[in-house]
Amino acid sequence: MQPLTHHQIVALVAPFSRAGLQVDLAASQRLERQLAFRPVQHPAVDGTHPALTETLWLLAPEGEPFTLRRVLAASDGLEAELEATGSDAGALLARLAAVPVQRQWRQGPGWVMALSHRVTGSTDAAGGGLQPTRVAVQLPGFRLRWTPPPVHSRLGELRLAAADPQARLPEDLLAVLGYPWTRLVAMDGAWIAHLRQRGNGLGAFAQVEQRLVRTADHLAATFTAPPALFHRRHWGARWRVTGRRSIPALLSLGLVAAAAAVPQLTLAPESVLRMLILNAPPLLLIGFFCLREVPRIEIPPLPRPLRQAAWQAAGDTAAPTTHATLST
């Protein structure tokens, strides 16, 4: 790969110069064919976003389409990226400029959300033609991160990390919001859950963004209240979660009971019911592996009030290491 020449740089930055942007040669990487532009400051907007620093990066690989990336960074390290790919650098700049800063940042009581997107459609498409690539939410003492599902999956990952390495969270912390949210599992120094979505189209991702806002509101309200209130507020929802988690085990027990009852039935050799019963095991096995989400057969714990006095130690800002998930 040949580094960018002076003449190539002049040609590439022409549309950016006309828009009032200046190339930052010191930050650019000519060998990697990446151009950086001088940062632009955005003042804080109450209820929308904090003070932000905007940086543009243009990747110009040899013989391939350009990639323009906009990075909006807050002082606490939270970042929102916007990326577009195409053969016309000026058109890419216009497409990114059509997405306001407010589209990629959300604020609510006790939380700030940064949404990163990839441009995949026109501005009048669902979700503004933007496909989320990741979402980060800053909460008091916690940070939530969402990543989209892989190909042929409908489960986006929710990763919740705490500043306090001794923090403890209930398994149904997010599942009480409804079926799209799965249980929390302590893993790799954080807690992992999943957010179900319908399809991978722009409309489905627009719904995901709405659910992430609801998730942030729920977590902020939960973490600003004593843990004991969680059970009182979500008593009914916690029992519904337990019921949903019990369904695979109950179905399995039902199948075992049905199999035990088959010898007691008097069926003719040519009976259709007999044929269905004999072929049920392989059909159920095939159906089991054809599911997008493999059911988890378990006996879930009964919901009980949380015993800890606080969600985490006061003033603890250490990086998360290992955590425990409360099963009761």
Please describe what this structure looks like:
With 328 residues, the protein is α+β, with helices and mostly antiparallel strands. The chain has two domains: 1-104; 109-116 and 127-260 and 296-328, no CATH class. Helices cover 30% and strands 25% of the residues. It contains six helices and 14 strands. Strands 1, 2, 3, 4, 5, 6, 7, 8, 9, 10, 12 and 13 form a twelve-stranded mixed β-sheet that branches. A hairpin with a 2-residue loop joins strand 6 (105-108) and strand 7 (111-119). Residues 315-323 have low confidence and may be disordered.
**Main sheet overview:** 12 strands, mixed
Rg over CA atoms: 26 Å
Described by its quaternary structure, the protein is: single chain
Provide the number of structural domains: 2
**How do the helices and strands follow one another from N- to C-terminus?**
HEEEEEHEEEEEEEEHHHHE
Helix content: 25-40%
Strand content: 25-35%
Keywords:
alpha+beta; two-stranded parallel ribbon; 25% strand; 328 residues; twelve-stranded mixed sheet; 14 strands
Topology:
Blueprint (H helix, E strand, L loop, with lengths): L5 H13 L15 E3 L3 E3 L9 E8 L6 E8 L5 E8 L2 H9 L7 E4 L2 E9 L10 E10 L2 E6 L7 E8 L5 E3 L14 E3 L2 E7 L5 H22 L3 H7 L1 H27 L10 H19 L33 E3 L2
Parallel strand pairs: 5-7, 11-14
Antiparallel strand pairs: 1-3, 2-3, 3-4, 4-5, 6-7, 7-8, 8-9, 9-10, 10-13, 12-13
Quick recap:
The chain has 328 residues and is of the alpha+beta class.
